[in-house]
């Protein structure tokens, strides 16, 4: 009875989602996408005489360069020139946060795949052939591949960071239970299907235009200027769109653009540099592997009283964005839980891997994995379900985060209990228990995964954006912002805002490429904040134009401004259409010499963070949600299939349901991939073994959960979010962490002697070994 | 001259036949809808359709153009995403992708659109499972596939009343543009076979060679054999099944009689790569690749197959497949020799065959361990046994001792447990990116057990083995 009733509720909710998808706006770019007409950097028409470049990189992870012989490569027909650090007119330095990363290696190499030279030739094929003719001699230096090793040797990127709340030491002494342990979460390859690339063209007066597949056009512009030793205004960066980014093109799209520009600078010819997949995998950084230790203390009633961790971040050979990522690990170390006494510490460990970088979640997932592991361990030791501990500690209104922000408009409990009720989790848990009782060759596991994710760049000064809106004299509109379209649908959202404010059809609006000459000094499209920041700026610009146009209309129609609204391509007076159309209004404004262009600047209010005290209010708001994951493990083969992931997600008031659902599903699957199949492997020499798509497996269509149900939680939304529609890019990735614990629960159901290990990803290998370790 | 129809345009080119079809369409013809994702057939972003005229009807198959030699396009109709586009509206497949939010960054999208269009053009039965198979080689990093599943459902729905082999129906229902109707006649007008081939590396489907050495093949002469008739065909005569080594995995998949002999054939082949690759990969290529983990090799080893080898003078010799492999990537094939065909004895009534494969990702992945078994059982006694195991030695391994041990033994859990002891002595797996030694040994045992629980579900359960193992 109870079950039927609940299913009815669920079905009603699912029907509502399905209806909202039908009515929701489609992705603006899908028309050209499905026709193969969207333009990515490698599709842009190139000029006659364009050269093609290939990067020569280090075949060792650490060593002194004793000798390089380029003569055979240079002699190959079709090779134009080979560039090295000696050809850099400005600084041979590309480090963004810390200046510790050369564009080209000079005397030493610090990771396998580190760029040493750029081979420029008539074709990519010739350049690659020439690469094979370069002879290099490297004297080996000791190689560090793990964070632990780096810590032991005192090899760090910067000083450690630490957050604390309450008195952890004292609290541990008062706990009924205290558990300690270790965890490991591996890196993750972004595997944007479009590899890194850029195209540089010489313009007049030594100016250079770069078309780049980057999330951070300003980073490309600034770094190119620095390397070439010229002013930023001489460099124009244009981004059409990205074939996927996921953080991998926030900082690491830069070197390839700079190299292409360097060659253009010297040759005064266009140069294209598109990495092939193997080069991309070998030369670029990934999500950071973390080795962590935790200590968790609970009371008898399962309240987490104290929590302490040390995160060892494997940063790779240079800082890249590692310090910022480390910081976010601390921000999310307690996930959705209120813990009164917390001490967290992170060490960015310098190793001889490619510099690891931003990846959807930006250190947050690594932090959350540890506390979920600690809870799983505690639950197992105490003999309760992890769900009970999770539920007993969910964040509440006005709770304090370890970084001092007071939690407001909290939906942690709301999403948790909604998920339990809507999906009838009691019945789900019973089904799993019954299945496991009746089956030996297959076992099921279920897990809960709540998420709380802060929205804003944690580096407060980065939270700004601009929009440049033109209304052309025929009434059509062009919008430029700092937002880079990479699949997240930000173009569509910008267009929706303008269409809504102007009340004109979407085919009258064009979203322009992202270009540093139209919108300058931008933050990268990252931190899930792109739609918020650029959307607010677009909204401001459109509103300013509307105010001006109302003034024009009030003169033309001789009515008060406050009675005028723009609706359905017309001017309305007191909600009734006038004879004045949108196009006529624009015409009139032109004749009156009213500016039909507006540039607006938005900077997120209220946020601040003091790094000396490690306290503040860094986030505009938080995104919440809860996922319930069910998996079936084949206990003969160690393989598994996810039956379902059932999610209650806090979208706020979603402005584009279809696009936002796509973000939730896509992030979820990427998170599950990180926790299950995707296994980065380096050997002890620092060579990447998972160096091709044949050895690095991302989810395919057969490996995704059979059912994914995402129900929006009903909330008021948040005014800091664009049109109350909350950021959605990163948070749902962390639902994927539930996959690890669902698998663990299934293994336990088969093998009661299984020792809980927290070593992600949970590959079929680890599952099979777990199923049979100490098996009696 | 290599001559073919690319979308609606007849191409005559003297480009090097070993160039990849991808490079030709993208950079020579500027058809940039075909994307480069991995250049090893593992992502599907470069998926194209190849139409072949067979007795007045067109047969379309999807391929990954990054590992396909241009010369193999000769005499075919090659279709890129641009070649599916209608003038001012979306095709049915495109609309399905758009309406269901199945495209985000858009980079993988043309590959999915082409593959789904290929499904509409294909002979496969119209159902959801087949539609998903059609896009099984396409990787999307953005959507998480749930939206793409919905798009596939929509395509299947739209195809509900399809008249098979009718361009007219597909044109009327917005799947393809009108020019398709002119293709059969135009292909007939293309001068016969592409014969003036240089001497050079033999290349059939190219699915492995182009992953290993595309640059070399684009820079040196290749000798394309995919169209050589004497290496083709599947015949079943006098109790023997003979398969030409140029047969693709899809040829096996589509062969009705073979599917009745091996009723689980499609289930097994589904574990072998993606549909795009199955459409290209030749059986012979898999055998001479000599990978210790080659799926088809393991499959045919357990069928106790023989192979026929021919030389340039058409002189033939026969050898058991299990004796073909000599060491890591070493096998009994001399300069100028080609694998011509593989044959196996048709099973008797009490025949049991099973194939198992475990990898990180169940589909489109290389096995950690794979295994096949062929048993004849009479009165609960094993009268004949052939077991093969991949990923556990330098060669694809036929387990001589284990097979011999099983022969004549009662079909019992004791026999199987004892056989596993022998099996473990026959193998020597190494730790690599596909798993540790311990894992591969455990997996070898488990897959060996799995053969019996799969084939004799009434006799054995997992518990019968693991409690005592």
TrEMBL record, chain A:
Domain of life, source organism: Bacteria
Record SUPFAM superfamilies: CO dehydrogenase molybdoprotein N-domain-like, Molybdenum cofactor-binding domain
Coiled coil regions in record: none
InterPro entries from the UniProt entry: Ald_Oxase/Xan_DH_a/b, Ald_Oxase/Xan_DH_a/b_sf, Ald_Oxase/xanthine_DH-like, AldOxase/xan_DH_MoCoBD1, AldOxase/xan_DH_MoCoBD2, AldOxase/xan_DH_Mopterin-bd_sf
Cofactor: FAD; Mo-molybdopterin; [2Fe-2S] cluster; Mo-molybdopterin cytosine dinucleotide
Transmembrane segments: none
Keywords in alphabetical order: 2Fe-2S, Iron, Iron-sulfur, Metal-binding, Molybdenum, Oxidoreductase
Positions of the Aldehyde oxidase/xanthine dehydrogenase a/b hammerhead domain: 35-142
MF terms (GO), sorted A to Z: 2 iron, 2 sulfur cluster binding; iron ion binding; oxidoreductase activity
PANTHER family: ALDEHYDE OXIDASE 1-RELATED (PTHR11908:SF132), XANTHINE DEHYDROGENASE (PTHR11908)
Family classification: Belongs to the xanthine dehydrogenase family.
Protein name, UniProt field: Xanthine dehydrogenase large subunit
Lineage: Bacteria, Pseudomonadati, Bacteroidota, Flavobacteriia, Flavobacteriales
From TrEMBL, chain B:
CDD domains in the cross-refs: fer2
Keyword Ribonucleoprotein attached: no
GO molecular function, one term: iron ion binding
Signal sequence residues: none
UniProt keyword terms in alphabetical order: FAD, Flavoprotein, Iron, Metal-binding, Oxidoreductase
Highest taxon of source: Bacteria
Domain 2Fe-2S ferredoxin-type: 1-84
Domain FAD-binding PCMH-type span(s) in chain numbering: 172-349
PROSITE patterns in the cross-refs: 2FE2S_FER_1, 2FE2S_FER_2, FAD_PCMH
Annotated SMART domains: CO_deh_flav_C (SM01092)
SUPFAM superfamilies linked to this entry: 2Fe-2S ferredoxin-like (SSF54292), CO dehydrogenase flavoprotein C-terminal domain-like (SSF55447), CO dehydrogenase ISP C-domain like (SSF47741), FAD-binding/transporter-associated domain-like (SSF56176)
Pfam families: CO_deh_flav_C (PF03450), FAD_binding_5 (PF00941), Fer2 (PF00111), Fer2_2 (PF01799)
PANTHER family named among the record's database cross-references: XANTHINE DEHYDROGENASE
Protein name per UniProt: Xanthine dehydrogenase small subunit
Organism: Winogradskyella eximia
Lineage: Bacteria, Pseudomonadati, Bacteroidota, Flavobacteriia, Flavobacteriales
